[in-house]
Amino acid sequence: MSPDIQMFRHRFFPASFNRPKTVFTFRVLNNFLLDSLECGTSAMNYYSKLWRMTLEHWRQLKTMRWHGFGHHSDNPSTGELALFCPTCPQPGINVLFWKYTRSFVMDGNFKAEHLHPIKLFNEVWLSDGLGFMVGKDRYKMHLAEAADTVEKSSCNNHQAVNQANAARHKLESTGIGGVACVRHGCFVPHSMVDFQKGKRQATCTIPHSRVNHASLADK
Ligand SMILES: [Zn+2]
């Protein structure tokens, strides 16, 4: 039986007939006809719609594969979908045992503002806490427990401190910060947080404690 007939029997519509490599399911074609009829959607717009719907999932699958989770069902744990600096010493990865020290720097961007999402139910976390950002539940727990000392700046107009005291209800976060290695500027996985109200002390302690924890675990 020719390849295209085999495709039709499985309810696939091949893009070419002799040696088909791309197929459309009958279901997606029916859905396109309905979209086109009722909403006037062009083929190009429908293609863009499918692209948007599947892009995030595709990125997630590729990231899983790149980090060694493509061929087994183990779930990645915190920070395992991100790589740390290949040059900084990491026992078991690029050195046999602790022979050198490594240093970290903590900094943030206080202008990367993020508005509250309009449709909260559309916000799906595909890799919560698995990459560079700290997991949202763990971070919320930390913020709830950590004491926040409001710093009074004697400097007349010091932005980082004055921002901390300003009410900014429209923003979900007022910046982003994290820990990187001093020498090469590579971010530490699972050590980045967004700032809730400027640069709060409580916000900054989690990446720091995370790095200390990671360093101790390595030893
Ligand atoms: Zn480094």
Describe the 3D structure.
The chain has 219 residues and is an alpha+beta fold. It folds into two domains: 64 residues, no CATH class; 115 residues, no CATH class. The strands form three sheets. Strands 3-6-7 form a three-stranded antiparallel beta sheet, covered by helices on one side. Strand 1 and strand 2 form a beta hairpin. The longest helix has 24 residues. The radius of gyration is 24 Å and the shape is flat. The C terminus is likely disordered. This is CxC2-like cysteine cluster KDZ transposase-associated domain-containing protein. InterPro entries: CxC2_KDZ-assoc (IPR041457), KDZ (IPR040521). It comes from Suillus discolor.
Key words describing this protein structure:
two-stranded antiparallel sheet, 219 residues, three-stranded antiparallel β-sheet, 6 helices, binds zinc ion, alpha+beta, single chain
Cα gyration radius (Å):
24 Å
Q: What is the helix tally?
A: 6
Q: Report the strand count.
A: 7
The main sheet orders its strands as 3-6-7
Quick check: average pLDDT? 83
Broad shape: flat
List segments where confidence is low: pLDDT < 50 over at least 5 consecutive residues: 215-219
Beta-strand content estimate: 5-15%
- Secondary structure class reads alpha+beta
Largest sheet: 3 strands, antiparallel
Separation of the first and last Cα atoms:
63 Å
The ordered H/E elements are HEEHHEEHHEEEH
Bound molecules: zinc ion
The residue fraction in helices comes out at 25-40%
Count of the separate structural domains: 2
Protein name: CxC2-like cysteine cluster KDZ transposase-associated domain-containing protein
Domain CxC2-like cysteine cluster KDZ transposase-associated: 4-54
Organism: Suillus discolor
InterPro entries: CxC2_KDZ-assoc, KDZ
